[in-house]
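Subject: sequence -> structure tokens, single chain

Hey, anyone have a minute? Need the predicted structure for the following. Not urgent.
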Amino acid sequence: MEDASDAGPVPGYTVDELAARAGMTVRTVRFYGTRGLLPPPEIGPRRVGRYGPGHLARLALIEELQRQGMTLAAIERYLEQLPPELSAQDLAVHRALVASWAPESAETITRRELERRAGRELADRDVERLAAIGVLEATDDPEVFRLDGALLRLGVELLDVPIDHETILASRTVLLDHARSAAQELARLFQEEVWNPYRESGTDPDHLTAMKSLSAHMQPMVVQALVTAFQRSLSEELRSAFRSP
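Reply:
Had a minute. Here:
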């Protein structure tokens, strides 16, 4: 439902619209708000709360963290450590990276359902671009696709980025290469400093408990550290590259 004042419609989503776009119930959205996981909405005319893209991106991140097995208390701690100025795009990046730890989540979806999930109409060029960056792949039926739902929101955001298609693909290659290198080094470090000592400890119950706890929480923590370090490094590089002579 849309709320309007004399000045015209107020931008943003009502709580019903936000819940529908996020694939959740209104009750769940309100619950996250009371827990402090979701910032309060802006209050417009008639005291109707309006939510924006940042709220939607945060709900998607919360959902992904839950899929990783994190409790609400752990999610609260995770979100509290995020910089408060993160945009919807930043949150989408966080979610995409967290989702990369999960098993592949490909699903079959029709074009109509794809557009509903994307929240917009998709031209043929948009579909081709989403396929090129790995968000979806075509099937024998031109109206049916295999979708990686974890990457959909980030892919839709990229559709509006004013960068050539080839540049986005080149950027993706750079990120994948460096991410793979970082993952290999982290895996080596984990094996040498955590796994090997655990094996040598035999059946120490305290060590086993610590290992289970670490396994449940280390992946989102590592993702957050990588994203934060990358954002800071990229900001420094861009400031240096475009500094006036």
